Amino acid sequence: MSHSTSSSALVTPGRGERAVIGIGEFAVTTAVDAEIVTHALGSCVAVCLWDPVTHVAGMLHFLLPESKLNAERAARQPGTFADSGIPMLFQAAYKAGAVKSRLRVHLLGGAAIIGGPNGLDVGRRNALIAKKLLWQNGVLVKGESLGGTDTRTVHLFAADGRVLVTRGREVVEEL
Amino acid sequence: MSSTNLPAASMTNREALSRALAVVVEESFFAMVDPVPGVVPAVEGSIVSACVTFEGSFSGSLTCCLPRALAHDLTATFIGEEVPIDRAAVNDLAGEFANMVCGRWLTDIAPQSLFTLDHSVVASTNAPSRAPSGLINGQPIWVDLNVG
Amino acid sequence: MKPLKILIVDDSATMRQFVRRAVQLSDVPIATVFEAANGKEALALFETNEIDAVFTDINMPVMSGPELLRELQRQGRRTPAVVVSTDGSPARRREMEGLAQWYVNKPVRPEVVRDVLNELASSIHD
Fold first, then answer.
1. Complex-level ipTM
2. Which of A3, B130, C62, C102 lies 20 to 30 Å from C114, alpha-carbon distance?
3. Are A106 and A175 within 8 A, CB to CB?
4. A61 touches B: beta carbon within 8 Å
């Protein structure tokens, strides 16, 4: 299993590996049988992408919409913010051999978490800015699991691009 | 706003109008309508006004006023591409914005009625003196109904 | 799959641009995208071009969406049609039954345009 050891956080799982990413981190893999997982996705949004030809798979777990909210943190960990993290994820995927027109992109998370640090709206704002950035960059979303009030654990499988949402051991959604 | 021949109370229609505005802003412009704070931000530059008239089981008009700078940003978001955005495109988008809000509002409050909506009339104007309906990307927007 | 020739009819140029972009970003191969600002302009395009599908607004000056679709039927054209309208009322949808095969409400997400176009393309090639 791979974990990020750096807060700037690109994780690159190898063959048969399961990479776990946290807030502000992202993973890109070219290993066909790798898996990328993120846990406790609340108001944060996970952006998952997969190229069905090269099997390049990637996932970003971002916390907030705009990097201007905290320039110092954005410099240290750009994956924390949608507007710095999403371009970074895509650039890493392209570098690994993904082709934009083939990418299947899924968005997950953006829940309204009561008692969350940034109010109930931040999940919706995260979801909206992700959709906006993708549209502006000519990428349509293949599927999504957004909103609600529950946290999500998200799994992305490089073998077939399956995106699963689990709660405990139970698969609650397959996109 | 006259409510004598509307199928619902005027307060419900104001809520419906707010909802229609919120849905349009989120679905087509990936933004949220925020409440107006105590002090309304000053508007720089000109205001664009878009008025759409409708006829059906009742008739009237809906007008959206927004800073031209905001209309420009919304146009860029809507089209999605980095192309030069000229005044004509911004005016067109303002008209379509009003059209979408009006259409959504009418669908919500009178789903059993058929309405015709005229092509929006777009003009430059001054910032209204009344409080805005909300803020989009920190900039004010005014949405007004005139029914009857 | 043969690339499709699509016609977008709406009195808003920015709405036409939006639909055009969504169509071109979809998985469906597109040969040409035509645009018209009203039903009359659309009919003129039908006279001189082969058109595989039409996306049309309802409320337009000069000639409306329903008028356009009725005229196309009168001409014996069986072009698949998608209505894209702010009017999502059951009353309007009933009016458009038999005139259009798909109906999407504005505000519309680009993914919805893509999904409808995928269905439409499948129906043409089945």
1. 0.93
2. C62
3. yes
4. no
